[in-house]
Amino acid sequence: MKLVHCLFICLATAACAASPRHVAVSARVEPAAARAGETVKLVVTTVVDEGWHLYSLTQKPGGPEKTTITLADNAIVEKAGAFTGPPPKRVCDTAFDMDVEQHEGKVEFVAPLALKAGAASGKQKIEGKMRFMLCNAQSCLPPMTAPFAVEFGVEPGAPRAEFVVAAVSTAAPPPFAPEKFGGQADGLGGLILLAIISGLISLLTPCVFPMIPITVSFFTKEASHDRRRALKLAAVYGLGIVATFTLVGVVLTLLLGAGSANKFAASPIVNIGIGLLFVAFALSLFGLFEIQLPSSWIDAAQSRTGAGTVGAIFMALVFTLTSFTCTAPFIGPLLVAITQGAWFWPLVGMSVFSATFAAPFVLLALFPSWLARLPRSGGWLNSTKVVMGFLELAAAMKFLSNADLIWNWGVFTTPVVLASWVVLAVLTGLYILGKVRMPHEEPVEKVGVARWLFGLLFLALALVMAPGFWKIAPPSLIDSYLPTPIALNHKDQLSWGEDYKAALAQAKTEGRKVFIDFTGYTCTNCRWMEISMFPEPEVAAALKKFIRVRLYTDGGPHGQENQDFQVARFGDAALPLYVIMSADDKEIARFAGMTRDVKTYLEFLKKGL
Predict the structure, then answer these.
(1) How many CB atoms lie within 10 A of CB 161?
(2) DSSP conformation class of 140
(3) Which domains, and CATH codes, for the chain?
(4) pLDDT reading at 410 higher than 80
(5) In angstroms, how far is the first alpha carbon of the chain from the final one?
(6) DSSP letters along 313-349, please?
(7) Which of helix, strand or coil describes residue 388?
(8) φ, ψ at 132 (rounded to 5°)
(9) Could you give the CA distance from residue 77 to residue 93 in angstroms, rounded to a whole number?
(10) Strands 89-93 and 53-55
(11) What secondary structure does DSSP assign to 477-531, as a single string?
């Protein structure tokens, strides 16, 4: 209706001269006095009434009219660059059926002006006009034009160096040594240490942890009571993980480049495949069917031992591919080294990472044989498998929502995913307490202390997540896994641009530095930083002093371009990556990965202040 209303008003008033309403337009020159040959800033300020907004200088066609500022011919000054504005607020406007860029409240648009040589001293005047379109939640006003004029002084004398602005450089900067923070490894020893730590942390990610029951059930069946056989299969499984991780990583890098790990992790097709695979795993854990290797594969192995070996290799391959989405943030920077010529670094890093990653699973592969000899272990193991089945369904929703984020289905939205998680947490708690059971299971005769504790833990988790339906954010660790974290709706008050060159130009005119946030639609660590670190009072205050630009590298219209820029310029494909740049396009500092330490992140930000 707003679009129809807007068009009706525009047509009805097309012949009339529109005078500005709900907005005040003014202008000033900084500095107020300058000399011939110097550059000044023309600042055009708009103050929009509460509840109204106008649109950005870069608003795309096909929707509301973008804001434009033109200057009258002037014998004294000439434009030295385009007008730039603060990063607009991006909103999905259903009336225009598109994303729009809007400004609210007080907004300043800035352009550099060069005083021509021989400009006469004394008072001078600059005139211009600003054309814009105002809308509120119910309707839009027809596009209107507001004239402005501003006086400034021209002083006699030679131009001063501090007011002579050179053009923004687009060339690659000379070699330098910016300070680095976060997950940067110094030397091969640091790389190995980073690989070990990351391998251990990766075990706790949502697409790795749910694979534990699959591993348990597979080796329980294959190993039976033969400990030597279990040891052999465990070794094959572990080596399969190491070989597959290393081979897949190297091949992807050679074929697709350094950003291939993130491309793979962010691919909607990959996320859909993994989501459906987890659904199948969950149904198998519920006892609806059993996952087995094709009989032709087993027959080809010619012996039971051979079949077990093939099965272990197959499980290692499947596990590597399904966990690649969560391990890509670490694999990314390792794979970059291949394209830079240091071929042995990614080989060493990937081997150490995957060996660390596989070690607990090798030990776990021995564990089922020991469990099988324990009294009454079968019932406990079956209950664990069912619980993990519920967790796998929750993980499947996460991967399906990743694909939704990229392809814009609007199906696996935050409310849908949150509702599924609440229901699954309740069902898991009731199952543990014996109130819900699978068709093939006997009723639980006695609920022990451990069952009570775990059952109540899952029910408490449901209660913690439920307030999200009323826009109350759950703990950040949970919120960061939602498609659009609830906390972002009211915590992230910072505005962000999406064009680095425009941000650089604005930084040049305003004498500020640029803060680049390389992020991804499917990057959970990125979401955690946005909802937990950025809103911290000291961090938010520091970020407000930068020209902020957010570049998505795993999707969107400029995803590939942004990723190529990240890899080519900074030699890193991992997310998140934060970089502080000077106005002349030189790197000052960078921070790789996420951190929960506010002091460490502030130390990084202060390098650019």
Answers:
(1) 7
(2) B
(3) 2-163 (2.60.40.1250), 203-377 (no CATH), 500-606 (3.40.30.10)
(4) no
(5) 46
(6) HHHHHHHHHHHHHHHHHHHHHHHHHHHTT-THHHHHH
(7) helix
(8) -155, 170
(9) 39
(10) unpaired
(11) HHHTTSSS-GGGGTS-----BS-HHHHHHHHHHHT--EEEEEE-TT-HHHHHIII
Angle in degrees, CA 456, 462, 464, rounded to 5 = 100
pLDDT recorded at residue 165: 55
In this structure, are residues 352 and 245 in contact, taking their beta carbons and an 8 Å threshold? no
Token pair in block for residue 476: 């950040």
- Report pLDDT digits (tens) over 171-200: 333 333 444 454 444 445 666 776 787 777
Identify the CA nearest to 5 among candidates 139, 173, 179.
Answer: 139
Separation between Cα atoms, residue 446 and residue 480, nearest integer Å: 37
What is the model's pLDDT at position 147?
A: 93
Cβ-contact 171, 569 below 8 angstroms: no
Contact indicator for 86, 106 with CB cutoff of 8 Å = no
Query: Tokens 């394209």 map to which residue?
Result: 339
Q: How far is residue 259's CA from residue 566's CA, in Å, rounded to a whole number?
A: 9
Q: Which of 42, 79, 81 is nearest to 167 (CA)?
A: 81
- Measure the CA–CA gap between 255 and 560, rounded to whole angstroms: 16
- Are 563 and 577 a contacting pair, CB within 8 Å? no
Scan for tokens 């920077």, then name that residue: 333
Beta bridge partners, 231, equal none
On whether the CB atoms of residues 288 and 386 are closer than 8 A, the answer is no
Contact by Cβ (8 Å): 24, 50 = no
Summarize pLDDT for 248-265 with one digit per residue, the tens. 666 655 655 555 555 566
CB-neighbour burial class of residue 332 (10 A; exposed 0-12, middle 13-18, buried 19+): buried
Query: How many CB atoms neighbour CB 585 within 10 A?
Result: 19
Query: 515 has which bridge partners?
Result: 548, 580
Check: pTM over 0.85? Answer yes or no: no
Residue 437: CB atoms within 10 Å: 14
Closest CA to 492 of 446, 540, 453: 540
Which of 350, 265, 344 is CA-nearest to residue 575?
265
Q: How far apart are CA 131 and CA 108, in angstroms?
A: 14
Q: Is 129 helix (H, G, I), strand (E, B) or coil?
A: strand
Tell me which residue of 369, 391, 393 sits closest to 381, measured CA to CA.
Answer: 369
Higher pLDDT, 334 or 543: 543
Cα dist. 488→31, 240, 493, 596 in Å? 38, 41, 8, 17
Residue 2 Cα to chain centre, angstroms: 32
CA torsion sign for 191, 193, 194, 200 is positive
Is the distance from CB of 40 to CB of 163 less than 8 angstroms?
yes
CA distance 252 to 261: 7
Which helix (H) or strand (E) covers residue 365, if one does? helix 344-372
Q: Distance between CA atoms of 581 and 516, rounded to whole angstroms?
A: 8
Query: What letter would DSSP give residue 497?
Result: B
- CB neighbour burial string for 476-500, b if at least 16 within 10 angstroms, e if fewer: bebbbbbbbbbbbeebeebebbbeb
Q: Within 203-267, where are the H helices? A: 212-223, 227-256, 260-266
Helices H, strands E: what count in the chain? 18, 17
* CB proximity list for 559: less than 8 A, separation 6 or greater: 552, 553
